[in-house]
Amino acid sequence: GERIRGHEFHYSVVTDPGQTRFALRNVLGKGIWDSMDGALEYNAIATYSHLYFRTSPLLL
Question: Is pTM, for the whole model, over 0.85?
Fold first, then answer.
């Protein structure tokens, strides 16, 4: 996968991720569930990670 720099801004607790699909895996942060972040639902992504788009040509 592509490596994108960023930082986590908030935290919360998920008691059961169920069938949640995640778009991101945090290398250093907690993420939403077990270092996973970026919950996907239909055409939306929910994340506490603030991404630095300039660190990845893929996102520009």
Answer: no
